Amino acid sequence: MSQPVHALFLVSAPDQPGLVARLASFFYAGGLNIIDASNHTDIHAEGGARFFMRLVVDLAGLSTPAASKALRGSATRGALETAFGELSASISADWSVRYTDVVQRVAILVTKDPACLYDLVLRQRAGELNCEIPLIISNHPTLEPVAESFRIPFVCLPVTPETKQDQERRLLELAAQHHVDLVVLARYMQILTAGFLEAAPPVINIHHGFLPAFQGAKPYHQAHARGVKLIGATAHYATQDLDQGPIIEQDVARVTHALGPEELTRVGRDVERVVLSRAVRAHLERRVIVAGRRTIVL
Amino acid sequence: MSQPVHALFLVSAPDQPGLVARLASFFYAGGLNIIDASNHTDIHAEGGARFFMRLVVDLAGLSTPAASKALRGSATRGALETAFGELSASISADWSVRYTDVVQRVAILVTKDPACLYDLVLRQRAGELNCEIPLIISNHPTLEPVAESFRIPFVCLPVTPETKQDQERRLLELAAQHHVDLVVLARYMQILTAGFLEAAPPVINIHHGFLPAFQGAKPYHQAHARGVKLIGATAHYATQDLDQGPIIEQDVARVTHALGPEELTRVGRDVERVVLSRAVRAHLERRVIVAGRRTIVL
Amino acid sequence: MSQPVHALFLVSAPDQPGLVARLASFFYAGGLNIIDASNHTDIHAEGGARFFMRLVVDLAGLSTPAASKALRGSATRGALETAFGELSASISADWSVRYTDVVQRVAILVTKDPACLYDLVLRQRAGELNCEIPLIISNHPTLEPVAESFRIPFVCLPVTPETKQDQERRLLELAAQHHVDLVVLARYMQILTAGFLEAAPPVINIHHGFLPAFQGAKPYHQAHARGVKLIGATAHYATQDLDQGPIIEQDVARVTHALGPEELTRVGRDVERVVLSRAVRAHLERRVIVAGRRTIVL
Amino acid sequence: MSQPVHALFLVSAPDQPGLVARLASFFYAGGLNIIDASNHTDIHAEGGARFFMRLVVDLAGLSTPAASKALRGSATRGALETAFGELSASISADWSVRYTDVVQRVAILVTKDPACLYDLVLRQRAGELNCEIPLIISNHPTLEPVAESFRIPFVCLPVTPETKQDQERRLLELAAQHHVDLVVLARYMQILTAGFLEAAPPVINIHHGFLPAFQGAKPYHQAHARGVKLIGATAHYATQDLDQGPIIEQDVARVTHALGPEELTRVGRDVERVVLSRAVRAHLERRVIVAGRRTIVL
């Protein structure tokens, strides 16, 4: 028996009475069962209270007469999206949908550190991350054998100040060619330009520091010099403002004075990979809505 | 300006399509805005998948024509409850409601340890726990000065094997007389009988162990003997089966071989009071539904 | 039977071979048993590797012939200190000692928030903090009833820009008069001047942020605006550089997008008081050595 | 330049005055610098207070005249061990030593789950675990490709009730033949017999539950049924009493009612591998002393 297929809707709109009822009724009227729903109203949002909702809808109902009737005879995904778009327009909502039988394609960018790369690939293989990994890209050849051991194509794009622009163009071509939906910077030690970020699919980065502390380079050395008692890692969407993008997930580990910068790096590596994989998973499950500088994780 | 008044609905029903839509539409039709909603379907429940929902509804809408019309001219809390009861019956739901302007009354039972008592009272005073504490009951006089310093009535009911039955009867009388909605065992070192638990309001207990490990007496001594590296505490509804009631909240703290049983007790005390106050808060905010041996915390 | 009396020695010296042996042998030769010892060598210290050691010594041995002989006939605390001072000089060490039967005296400074104050006093009463609290000082009268309920003298010193200098002088007089060994800023909302900090006993402050992130005012509002997923608190020695003093202890709590600034404040308050009390305890047990901008906690 | 070579001594003895001084002086007299030392006295031990110490000694001193003189002309590791053995005998101590230039050899036993296996191998490759992994043994062929991708010999020893005894004998032969110092059960789904455990090198097991809760099979299903709010994992030395061996390390992760048994398994897997690798690391660094049912981790 095949897995049931779900549609994952994310909605964000100016708050007003009745939003939950209108959204829920839309699917109910169409015979589509809501498997899971969660919502949040941010009363502190700039420009007034804002409503956020995530809906997981069972598409089995699409083949019923109710759906056919509600969608004016054409019970297709396209018709569903058209109808939902009309509802959304009437409440000034931003929205998106994806379907669980359309597997997301994730490109992983790395440099030399294999920890996060292994972690992501192993979770994908274990079924924890519902995605495909069509290619791994690096500015160094170091991790090619890792990619090979998993039979994932590996592209090496060495970057120098002179070649940076060309390589970013090449990156975009590869992303387009492989139908990449998400780029994950799994310890990719290059700063991406604003131009690239504008043109690329969403990009998730792992920062090896507890942002907003320790922005910039060598956060573990900064942490050691400052004598902190916890170190952390932060997964965030990459934006033009370095280390300032909306935070998706963070975590920390306890450390003591006895650990030098190298040992902080080792402890931190464990935090990084757990934080990054949680963030990627939340993104793939369409749980994350960006709201200004913050994220809503439903 | 006064605080808006909310109704907190908790619903539990056999799962079926359209439940979110029907519940949301009920309020929408009555002009009542849903401030916050969350739901969960437990597909592992005994007897088939079960649906749980918490709805926070703004009662301001009760004074609008829409409510009046939907509730057949009588836009009162009673009429709302009657109408919601009819809807619930049609979906075989269990449900309850409470209103944020009806403050819950909590009796705290203690023995000699003041830590959890202080914690609860201070949080209530700081506005973190929306409740009144009309009385503190103890089987020892030790904590009377604490009660006094907060001007809370203190009743001492010493318990011996011979007086146990009488004192439990007295406890029930006091609970009734003070309109107690919740009893909190804040390190009350007496086992309550099944008869008492049946007749009493809900009872929350803090167990100083990470249940189901270390049931019974002296959990920190057990934990020390076993050499565990973490100790914990568990807040649960008291049931006839000692230390087996549905768990509401748990947490742990890291310990080492260097700590003896007394020091484990000290570390544990910090965990206990945080865990107990979180559980009481969740209960007061109507976030907890008991489902068999488990709780759903929405 | 009385408690055994211990001397707590803290030593810091340039690293060289044989330091543990020389320090341990000093006490052994004098018939003084080392109950507990821990040491750390910081190879990253500025100016070369530095050795840190904490020794807990049972003073019962002071009354034995061995001590008398080793200390040249005068087996007193003074003679012990003189002899240890000579040893320390020979290894260029900084050192300090305190005795467990000389109870430390702690002044608590507060403004309006009672959470940390209650926490410290209750732990002191429960025997968790081995100290006396001879007075509570505040720039507001709000918490006088709390001080009174514990029968602790309360002094109100309102501060305005004009009176700041005078009030700090008054603070120093009170500290001297009450033989205060440690000043704890338990949410004291005034910045202390460099002059005060130089003249005063050690000062421990609780910062309601995960330093070095969120320095300065309203850290929870900053944290909310930035959308962090963890909030924290930091206990540190107060120095002239605001929020830059050596960190003694830190911890965090997990938060979500759903919490507004007020709720972050509530969650943070729990972290603050636990972190502050751990730092005060570590200081009282002579576990903390300041080493530049960092602390060694043995 | 080569790494300095250290000797790691572990000592356990009945407590008495002067132990730290005598042990430290032994090395000092021989010109051997103590790099790191930590000790603990367990006053709750059965049979009276017991002293535990770990000493890290720089062997560079072995080539100095002081060592030669102290060790009676023969400044070898053997002579050092003989002399230390004499000291230990005089204080009735148990002791062991290992040298950092003698790399420990670890055999990993697995069944089908690759998570812990990958974790251990990747950490060993990253230099986090100072050991060699000469072979991987499994009762199933599933993970052979993983072993192969790291070029580690893989031996498949399928186990049935009839072959169990023979396969355990084969396991012991392989351990002897490969000079295995430590066996790690990285989700090896077979119970080892008392006979095997007696004859084998030390065995560390990862239990996917927060022992002593959830002993036995299917701990995540037990945890789900009981509705716990945290799940954990425990690394312990395997002993004849199943799931009762001395605990080396534990940790937990927060879960909610929303997670089914499969999702608890996924969350738990992350805890398991971190806990197991910390325990293996502590063992390899000779930080763990077994004391009855407990461990001292120095």
TrEMBL record, chains A, B, C, D:
<dbReference type="GO" id="GO:0006189">
    <property type="term" value="P:'de novo' IMP biosynthetic process"/>
</dbReference>
<dbReference type="InterPro" id="IPR045865">
    <property type="entry name" value="ACT-like_dom_sf"/>
</dbReference>
<keyword id="KW-0378">Hydrolase</keyword>
<comment type="similarity">
    <text>Belongs to the PurU family.</text>
</comment>
<dbReference type="InterPro" id="IPR002376">
    <property type="entry name" value="Formyl_transf_N"/>
</dbReference>
<dbReference type="GO" id="GO:0006730">
    <property type="term" value="P:one-carbon metabolic process"/>
</dbReference>
<dbReference type="GO" id="GO:0008864">
    <property type="term" value="F:formyltetrahydrofolate deformylase activity"/>
</dbReference>
<comment type="pathway">
    <text>Purine metabolism; IMP biosynthesis via de novo pathway; formate from 10-formyl-5,6,7,8-tetrahydrofolate: step 1/1.</text>
</comment>
<feature type="domain" description="ACT">
    <location>
        <begin position="8"/>
        <end position="94"/>
    </location>
</feature>
<comment type="function">
    <text>Catalyzes the hydrolysis of 10-formyltetrahydrofolate (formyl-FH4) to formate and tetrahydrofolate (FH4).</text>
</comment>
<dbReference type="Pfam" id="PF00551">
    <property type="entry name" value="Formyl_trans_N"/>
</dbReference>
<dbReference type="InterPro" id="IPR002912">
    <property type="entry name" value="ACT_dom"/>
</dbReference>
<keyword id="KW-0658">Purine biosynthesis</keyword>
<dbReference type="InterPro" id="IPR036477">
    <property type="entry name" value="Formyl_transf_N_sf"/>
</dbReference>
<keyword id="KW-0554">One-carbon metabolism</keyword>
<feature type="active site">
    <location>
        <position position="243"/>
    </location>
</feature>
<dbReference type="InterPro" id="IPR004810">
    <property type="entry name" value="PurU"/>
</dbReference>
<protein>
    <recommendedName>
        <fullName>Formyltetrahydrofolate deformylase</fullName>
        <ecNumber>3.5.1.10</ecNumber>
    </recommendedName>
</protein>
<dbReference type="InterPro" id="IPR041729">
    <property type="entry name" value="Formyl-FH4-Hydrolase_C"/>
</dbReference>
<dbReference type="InterPro" id="IPR044074">
    <property type="entry name" value="PurU_ACT"/>
</dbReference>
